[in-house]
Amino acid sequence: MDNTVTTAEIKRRGMAALEERLGHGPLHILKRNRPAAVVLSEEEYRRLVQGRAAAPAGLTAVQWLLNQPVAGGIGKAEIDAALQAERDGWNQA
Q: What is the CB neighbour count within 10 angstroms for residue 27?
């Protein structure tokens, strides 16, 4: 698995992280350093399913990523509160 990307990088960089590597063949997505999914180019996908009916559509890559559990121990509300407290501190200085 030479062509890999982590879920953290995809979350950070979005589609750019995928598009860069798809030119080098199937892209293996790692979640917590374990293989989790493979992304194919449209051309490679069509080559694989040529002559057969396509399987029912499953989750898109974005849907799959959005369904992943939160990696950190705090939620969005806590992060927003911490950022606001930090900004309030700057405004008082």
A: 23
Confidence (pTM): 0.49
Encode pLDDT of 26-39 as tens digits: 899 999 888 899 99
One-letter-per-residue 3-state SS of the chain: CCCEEEHHHHHHHCHHHHHHHHCCCCEEEEECCEEEEEECCHHHHHHHHCCCCCCCCCCCHHHHHHCCCCCCCCCHHHHHHHHHHHHHHHHHC
Q: How far apart are CA 49 and CA 63, in angstroms?
A: 22
Give the domains, in start order, of the chain with CATH numbers.
4-92 (3.40.1620.10)
Q: Which of 87, 29, 13, 21 is nearest to 61 (CA)?
A: 29
Closest CA to 63 of 21, 22, 10: 10
